[in-house]
Amino acid sequence: MLRSQLGRGSRILAKITTTPRTYSSASAVGATANAGQIIKTFFNRDSTTVTFSMEESDKPVSVCFNNVFLRDASHGANLVTTGELYHNEKLTAPQDIQISQDGKSLAVKWQDGGVHQFPLQFFLDYKGSSFVSPATRKQESRFQSQLWNKEILKSNIKDLLSVNYNEFIDAKDDSKLFQTLVNLQKFGITFISGTPSSSSEGLTIQKICERIGPIRSTVHGEGTFDVNASQTTSVNAHYANKDLPLHTDLPFLENVPGFQILQSLPTSQGEDPSTRPMNYFVDAFYATRNVRESDFEAYEALQIVPVNYIYENGDKRYYQSKPLIEHYDSNEQNTLLSNYETLIKCINYSPPYQAPFTFGIYDKPSDLNNNPDLNLITTPAKLTERFLFKSFIRGLNVFENHINDFNNQFRLQLPENCCVIFNNRRILHANSLTSSNQKWLKGCYFDSDTFKSKLKFLEEKFPHVK
Predict the structure, then answer these.
(1) Are 79 and 145 part of one and the same domain?
(2) Beta-ladder partners of 446
(3) Fewer CB within 10 Å, N or C, the chain?
(4) Is residue 228 part of a domain?
């Protein structure tokens, strides 16, 4: 509770500011959030209530805001930390509040002399109601993820294949860059055709990546890396001389790269293009939703049981434990099955890097009662993990059956001079075995924060694109 210098009998410092307003229907004003107006306010030393109209509601609505929140959101000359607000009531108690003549903003004068003007849009952004669609978090995209199987993705393939390298790289026109990022936001995967045929493949993929943001350094180095399926020993599971199973890249890192770019290199002299491997892609979000629909108990186990991942090579030692499924914080909207794509955060699934389990690995002997001299050293707490682990295995089986179903896989031999960009935390990828000893792909990574930042910037630049 905030400390008060007021006496008990003078706790409420209230004032009502009211301005006559007329109301218009959404159809008359137009479908914009700014069609609303601030109607009136009421404040005391703890909170401020704002009543305003908006096009999503037939009648005015009211929201009561904590004054610490409002002052913390006030970016003025008198900058204070959130902690200071707790100890100084003058910083958080309004002295006066005035509504602008057009009802589009609210000026708050604090008792320490600080003044801040809140636009109507601020109250719309932070109203917190569940019956409207605009996101309250600025980093959320207006484009919703679309879960897919092979049929669904192929029905959208025209959009996914419509971006050319020269258009994408044009710094004077961001429209194709925006389309690429929207494709990634919706489907987790997209393609760029017409990459240059030259010996400077590393420079090409670097330009593609840096159009979005900086290349992410990993255990593969600071820049790009080569993919050669026939190489038998390497620092990278990509090079194993066998079919590479569907997987997430680099799950042994605490901060797993969010996105990967793979560029198909030109064929070398004498190389048979048909010997190049097939690339497989699967929407793991679609697979986990399938588990949730069919066996919710198993689905919950996939969120809890830690899977261990390890990487040991040379002087490098990496080890992480993560559940297969990670969620965003739950709310009344994203827990609905129809809004599952706003609940699921990322997938951790990578058999090539998986280490032995350390959870649920012990069982209780069936003949324990008949062997009183059996000195069982496993603690009861560790024994009870076996029940959750059995649900985990059941869920994992449903998950793997889904991702290995041909009808859920998008397969292609990546065309020469083409690149694919995909979400490494959503899209599982794999390739088939090849007898070729040629490198056929160049790759690199970039982070999710980089992607979200550029997408949000371009959403502001192209506000009418849907």
Answers:
(1) no
(2) 259
(3) N
(4) yes
Kindly report the number of other CB atoms within 10 A of residue 108's CB atom.
Answer: 21
Say if residue 111 is in the same domain as residue 167: no
Domain-located, residue 302: yes
- Strands, E, within 189-247: which ranges? 189-193, 225-227, 244-247
Let me know whether 111 and 151 are in one domain: no
> In sequence order, what are the residues at sequence separation of 6 or more whose Cβ sits closer than 8 angstroms to the Cβ of residue 200?
none
Please tell me whether residues 119 and 186 are part of one structural domain: no
Whether 2 is covered by a domain: the verdict is no
Q: Are 215 and 343 within one domain?
A: yes
Q: Are 19 and 40 in contact (CB under 8 A)?
A: yes
CA distance 2 to 5: 10
Contact call for residues 310 and 318 (beta carbons, < 8 A): yes
Torsion (CA) 387, 388, 391, 397 in degrees, nearest 10: -120
Whether residues 177 and 62 share a domain: the answer is no
148 in the same domain as 113: no
Q: Domain boundary at 69, 101, 125, which?
A: 125
Asked whether 73 and 66 are in contact (CB, 8 A), the reply is no
pLDDT in tens for each of the 466 residues of the chain? 333 333 333 333 344 443 332 222 233 333 344 578 999 999 988 899 999 998 877 889 899 998 888 888 876 645 556 566 656 777 778 899 999 999 999 999 988 888 889 999 888 888 875 444 344 455 678 899 999 999 999 999 999 999 999 999 999 999 999 999 999 999 999 999 999 876 565 688 999 999 999 999 998 878 888 876 554 334 445 444 556 789 999 999 999 999 999 998 877 766 666 777 789 999 999 999 999 999 999 999 999 999 999 999 889 999 999 999 999 876 655 555 567 888 899 999 999 999 999 999 888 777 767 777 777 788 888 889 999 999 999 999 999 999 999 999 999 988 888 999 999 999 999 987 655 556 678 899 999 999 999 999 999 999 888 7
Residues 6+ apart with CB under 8 A from 275: 434, 435, 436
What tokens appear for 215 in the block?
């290349």
| Residue 132, in any domain of the structure | no
- Mapped onto helix, strand or coil, the DSSP state of residue 3 is coil
CATH classification of the domain holding 275: 3.60.130.10
Indicate the angle between helix axes 380-403 and 296-304, nearest 10 degrees.
110
* Same domain, residue pair 215 and 324: yes
Judge contact between 67 and 92, C-beta under 8 A.
yes
* Closest residue by Cα to residue 34 from 134, 131, 140: 134
Where does a domain end: 95, 125, 155? 125
First to last CA, the chain: 45
- How big is the CA angle at 243 (ends 241 and 244), to the nearest 5 degrees? 95
How many folded domains does the chain comprise? Answer: 2
The one-letter code for the residue type at 377 is I
